[in-house]
User: What shape does this take?
Amino acid sequence: MKEKKRRKRALLTGITGQDGSYLAELLLAKEYEVHGIIRRSSSFNTQRIDALYQDPHEKDVRLFLHYGDLNDSSSLNRILRLVDPDEIYNLGAQSHVKVSFDTPEYTGDVTGLGCTRLLEAIRELQIRPKIYQASSSEMFGKTAETPQSEITPFYPRSPYGAAKVYAFWMMVNYREAYGLFSVNGILFNHESPRRGETFVSRKITRAVGRIRHGLQERLYLGNLGAKRDWGYAKDYVEAMWLMLQREDPEDFVIATGKTNTVREFCARAFARAGIELTWEGSGLQERGVERGSGRVLVEIDPRYLRPTEVDTLLGNPAKAKKKLGWIPKTTFEELVNLMVDSDLRLAENEARLNEIVSSKASRVRS
Ligand code: NAP
Ligand code: GDD
Assistant: This one.
């Protein structure tokens, strides 16, 4: 009798996050069996993958979720033994740079040691999956050169960046010490309509939508002059997958090769919603003002400044282009537009819902 070929099996930490949801979609489209580790939470944390969820009682289920935590070695061991994956994507992290200054120990534990726990579980179980680590351009920190490539030295400027540097070198060490196929994708900032709402891109596009629909008056930001190399998350998860399809384990920078300020992101986002911003004042007094009406729409709130900042990031994706055949498909302008369009729709729905609620309330009162 012909033996049925086993599907490729992938295990994702951080499947409920922005990248995890796009990567799960990509892998399911490629006919993988996808296993994701989710954390217990008192509120729902699976919204980004709800569309992918399959009832385990259905036939041909290919998405499986397991409770576990990067802080909990025994759960990682158990899940790895159960799943026996061909590929592991370690995307789980406390990923917010500003929050890492408030929770440095916890961030080190999840974002740094979490990677070591996974590597040790692989070693103990004597399995040989390929493993991808979500490394970050934040590791370049106080940049030694511009643009940054695979050989640029690291100088992290946050507890998050320091934790990612530790995980980066653990991946290299397990590759060299035990011959594991363990690779780092050094990804520059990538965004999408699924981006968490406290990262600056989404904070801006969410506010633009709400201001346009009269649900919010003003947007408060920190450092408007910071420059980031912003790409589209959907393009970037393809690069993750490509890195694990190679014969040889190597690390790659994934970026667009272009950089823009937070101020520029902001102005373009408002423009997409038909609002022209001009900038007045300087330093903490700088403000974004609507041309014509004079309405102040953007102000600085020092609470969003960081104790140490990464001023400029600009990546050189030449190696990824040459060896992975990867190039970013979405421009900065297209990225801002698609995020604003999505958040305009969200705000429109929110406004409509508010209207229904208030008209019902006034009917009850009258
Ligand atoms: P994200 O949206 O913040 O998602 C983080 C994921 O990690 C979530 O699924 C979260 O679960 C999970 N997680 C947090 N703590 C955990 C723990 N203790 N155990 C297990 N899982 C845990 O981040 P993202 O933007 O998708 O980024 C994915 C990865 O790439 C992260 O490692 C990030 O540091 C790194 N990275 C991101 C970028 C970027 O620009 N997006 C650039 C470079 C590197 P909950 O949903 O339950 O919170
Ligand atoms: N979050 C936030 N909120 N950032 C602001 C604000 C604000 O109100 N105002 C200005 N900024 C500036 C930050 O100081 C920073 O310079 C820049 O906007 C981008 O901030 P974030 O969107 O929070 O991203 P990040 O660059 O700190 O970190 C992201 O990218 C890294 C890759 O370089 C995260 O996704 C990390 O997980 C990722 O590794």
Q: What stands out?
A: The mean pLDDT is 97. The first strand starts at residue 9 and ends at 13.
